[in-house]
Structures are given as C-alpha cells and as structure tokens.
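cron nightly-structures :: item 1 of 1
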Amino acid sequence: MTTANPTADFSDNANNRPGKIRNRALWTLQILLGLFFIIASGGPKLVIPNTLTDNAPENLTIPFGLLIFIGVVEVAGGIGLMVPRLSALAAAGLSVLTVLAAGTQAFIADKPLMAIFPLVLAAIFAWIAYERRATITDLRDSLSR
C-alpha cells in the first residue's frame, strides 16, 4: 500500500530559498546597496558626468560614453537589487561590474589598495546572487510559459 507524499507538491526551488532571518538580512543589504548604487555611485555618473571627468586623475581618463554606460548599469543594478524577481541577476551583474572596477583601480589607476572595496562588494553581491538563485529559475519558468 502506498501513501501520498505530502511534500511532493513543493518545487525543488523551495530548498534553495533562505530562512526568515537570512532573508531579512539579505533584503536589508539589497536595499542599502541598491540605494548606494543609485544615489552615490551611478547617479552622479548620469547627473554630473562632466564634473567627474574633469576631476579624474590623468591616469584614469575614461571615455565619456563609457562613463554614462557604467552609470546606467549601476543605476539599473541598484534598482534590480530591490526588485524581488530580478535580485539574483542584478547581484550577479553588479558582482561582475565591481570585479572590473577593482581591476581598473589596481591596474589602470595604479592604486591596488583602492581595489579592496570593490572586491568586498563583489563578494557580497556573489553571496546575494547565490542566496537568491531560486529567483533566476522562477523568472526563467515564468518567461517560458
């Protein structure tokens, strides 16, 4: 005689979701980092790009279009961190962006100690992306319908 398994209806993604306390810690981090990237990092690149390029050191001159592109990516990533369905993808994208920023600081600006902060951010974003990985499969499943 067989009996019904009451847990059979749950998807495998339920095991990939963080607990209540970890979920609150993640959302707190996501909101704080999202606001940081919108207001303090990407926003100035979009609002006052000329001032940023004028005040840049000689060895860190980036093309104006690239500065605007980076600002758009940072603002989009900051917004994406605060959207539940996009949080894992935004965190993964910001992780890549901050690793590239660390490389720029270390090798192009020739200030390797300045690369520590972006690398710490990259690790935090990688952790957020890992913890929110179930949202990626949920998004994929909703788009494939």
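cron nightly-structures :: done
The helical segments are 20-47, 49-54, 64-81, 87-108, 116-131, 133-143.
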